[in-house]
Write a structure and sequence with these properties.
Layout lengths: L1 H20 L2 H29 L11 H21 L6 H17 L3 H13 L7 H18 L10 H4 L7 E3 L5 E3 L15
Antiparallel strand pairs: 1-2
Helix pairs in contact: 2-4, 3-6, 4-5
Length: 195
Amino acid sequence: MIILGSFLVCFTFISIFRNMSEGTRHSTYEEGRSYYRNQELQSLSLQTDRFAGGPAIAPKLGNETAKAELGRAAWKLFHTMFARFPDEPTEEESVALMTYIHLFQRLYPCGECATHFGQILNQFPPQVSSRSTAAAWGCHVHNEVNKSLDKPIFDCSNIGDFYDCGCAPDAEDDDGVSVVETKHSGRPGMDDDDR
């Protein structure tokens, strides 16, 4: 029995090393790596569903001034995040943004605002396939909130021109390492009070 087991182990090692020398290890390794990455993303998606879905956690926020200030700051954060999201995100980046949006809704410090935003998320699920779709979705759901508050509606077709994310093109230093330039783009920023 021991001899048979030893033979199988030796045969397995010889097969593996022979395949490696023939160049098949790389493709098999990459296929396995891709398989496990997809499994990890599916698992992450299930965890997202488990933790991100659900009711708002915070109680009602009674101070109207604090509520308005919080809302302006939250929309500034959201619009900046969408404007800086990758043009061609990976699946993992898209899942991360979607998870963030749902967790943001659950943890938002204004309970009634979070509940209302949760209803909007159910009606208009986050669109995270690219920077432009995320930005357009963010503008649309902001307008949905604005409608409920009897505030003016923003023309979402201009969101890319109107909102300054503070983005700067990447540059390289003398060693070829990417660094971010600090120049301002010169476009006007979105004034949340006008929305």
